[in-house]
Amino acid sequence: MIGVIIATHGEFSIGLLNALELIMGKQEKVETMCLTHDTSIEEFSVDMLNHIKSLDSGEGVVVFTDLYSASPYNQAALNYKNLQNVDYRIISGVNLPMLVEGFNQRMLGASLDEVATLSMETAKEGIKEFFNEMKQNKAK
């Protein structure tokens, strides 16, 4: 089974996992990581490395982060040199539609690349504005 890490600033990752499990039920092989004022970046980096290693059972790991090129994302990327034997993907902009799709694809047995690609597509497609959607639906 593909492992999953949700790594964010503050406790956002905990809230996302809580919401996901409300929709999809309890999940296995998932860790949340919260970067707070009390967390040193060195400690966060070591925890990231250890979580990626422990979650990999041969199918890889997806690391979902909140912001591109911010600390959680950067620590996953900087650990690449220490994870040459682990297949993993780092995806920024985590949102609930992205996670639902990723966990659903994982449950269906999709590959690591499929999970990553479909999660990103769903995240983008899930961004809607009500009145624009109403106008588009009326035009059809």
CA-atom Rg in angstroms: 16 Å
Uncertain runs = none
Helical segment tally?
A: 6
Major sheet characteristics: 4 strands, parallel
Topology as H/E string? Answer: EHEHEHEHHH
Structural account:
- The protein has 140 residues and is an alpha/beta fold.
- 51% of the residues lie in helices and 16% in strands.
- The chain is built from six helices and four strands; from the N terminus they run βαβαβαβααα.
- A four-stranded parallel β-sheet has the order 2-1-3-4, with helices on both faces.
- α1 (12-24) packs across α4 (96-107).
- The model has no long low-confidence stretch (mean pLDDT 97).
Quick overview of this protein structure:
This protein is α/β, with parallel strands linked by helices and 140 residues long.
Keyphrases for this structure?
6 helices, four-stranded parallel β-sheet, 140 residues, alpha/beta
Question: Would you spell out the secondary-structure blueprint of this structure?
Answer:
Layout (H helix, E strand, L loop, with lengths): L2 E7 L2 H13 L5 E6 L5 H15 L5 E5 L5 H8 L9 E4 L4 H12 L4 H14 L4 H10 L1
Parallel strand pairs: 1-2, 1-3, 3-4
